[in-house]
Amino acid sequence: MPVADVAAPAAFADLFESQRRRALRLAYLLTGDHDMAEEVVAEVFVRLYPRWQQSKIDDPGAYVRRAVINYVNSAFRRLEVRRRHDRASVPRLADPADAGVADRDAVQRALLVLPVRQRAAIALRFLDDLSEAETADALGVSVGTVKSQVSRGLDRLRELLDANQEGDAQ
Amino acid sequence: MSDFEDQLRRTVLTLADDAPTGDELLPVIEQRLDRERRRRRIAKLGGGTLALAALIIAAVLTVAALQHAPAHRKVEISTPKPTPPQPPGRPKQLARPVDGIPPGGIVVARADGRVVLVDANWRDVRTVVPATPGTVITAMAVLPDGDHIVVQRRPSFSETDKQGCSTISEINLRTGTSVELGNAVSFAVSPDGTHVALVRTDDAAGNCVGGNSTGATPQSSIIVRGIVDNNSQTTTLGTGLAGGVAFSPDGRQLVVSRCTPGNCMDAIFDVASNGALSPSVTSSIIVSSEDETRRYAPRFAWNTQGLYLAHQPNGQVREIDLATGQDFSYLTKETGGREIASIAGRLYLIDPNGTSLLAIDIDAAKITLVTPDVSAISERPSAR
Fold this sequence. Notes:
The complex is a heterodimer.
Chain A: H1 10-31, H2 34-53, H3 60-75, H4 77-86, H5 99-113, H6 116-127, H7 132-139, H8 143-169
Helix pairs in contact in A: 1-2, 1-3, 1-6, 2-3, 5-8, 6-7, 6-8, 7-8
Chain B: H1 3-16, H2 25-45, H3 48-68, E1 81-83, E2 92-93, E3 106-109, E4 115-118, E5 124-129, E6 135-142, E7 148-155, E8 166-172, E9 177-184, E10 186-189, E11 195-202, E12 219-226, E13 232-239, E14 241-247, E15 253-260, E16 263-271, E17 277-279, E18 286-289, E19 299-303, E20 306-311, E21 316-320, E22 327-332, E23 339-343, E24 346-350, E25 356-361, E26 366-372, E27 376-379
Antiparallel strand pairs in B: 1-13, 2-9, 3-4, 3-27, 4-5, 6-7, 7-8, 8-9, 10-11, 11-12, 12-13, 14-15, 15-16, 16-17, 16-18, 19-20, 20-21, 21-22, 23-24, 24-25, 25-26
Helix pairs in contact in B: 2-3
């Protein structure tokens, strides 16, 4: 890959380093795909740069979190619709050699069945240990909506994972 | 926390550990930032060879970016193709000549098809275009010279054709003559008044069908046409129903919306001096909103404060952050608006029935009725 003519300032590189891991983990949970997660985070930081230069970002962590969710929610919407149809039922793993991997795979597939907002609410709760108010801020919704999103998301996940286990048992 | 939640939490954390490390990501970001800096630098230099070189670089980079981007970033856009100069329609005498629109003058279209100059209290000052029985003006634009006005008309009895194709005409107020520019779903005039962009949706036979297509694969396109020389450039958008179009305040970019079932997209293009379009490097596509009906793609207003979008079916007015590409819904009205316009720096909506002018107060986040009996609005822009 060719090296850019003019590198971003060191402070921006520091900002990227401080947020990179968390942003990628969130993007990966939301997209379920390594390449997409990297694409999302790259685009978020490209779009963040001019605002950061103008000192318009008070809390970079919150900004990046929100930008990742919004980017996935908007730009990936078409893809999501298709995916949801593709994943109407959670496929079972046949004879999983490693139960841990099987669990992880089932959870990942189940997460991807959820609407992006529900997925994000659950990811923020478990991944970043955010409070309901912080999650509401990241999603741009009310605390009540966060509660219902998490509750519905967990119910749906339980349902999907139970169905997966029953399938395994048969 | 229940056992299920506890177990789920552990699994989610393990799952997140599989996330990519992004070790190679910073050079990618820097490369994209550098590309954007160069594009802006060249755009600032402007003119002749440099502008041409910039366009070529932008086109190559865009093609490369689209080829390497994930599938969702790919847009069905054909290479702009020059179209033979279109002879203007035969001028016809429309009305007696009148004075032009004074600088900063605001005109509104009334239900009977008249275009009237209004004062600061929205009272009629004088009629600049007389009534045309049986037609209603759904959009219009005053050119910077104040002597020409472009209007979009449709038959007033055609309730099913509110956002379908209708006739776009240029009226010379000083001679009272009208020249037909073509049929389109919507149009926009460049800020310098040199180009008009016509957005069309055509059926398989090439008939402009607007939002009323029952065919499976209507095709949408933008025609950017020189108002004086009539040279035109056609850019194919692909399948779907086209909607609004707007030029950026500096005239260098253009945004257009297009809807396929359940999905609307806004594409931003860079505009060359000859009217040719190339997908913008920074914002090639923004997904704006869903439209289950496909019939009403979003409309735009683009002023120096920002790019705004009005979406009729879901009643939203949104602002698109051009720096991040994200859009924010800050107003939702039950009925939405058919058209959105920026007049004297403020935003206005035409209500869905096309009969009232509504003001958007961004700070107070509310929409209020300004005056009834208005189907379209425009102001004379300042000359550039």
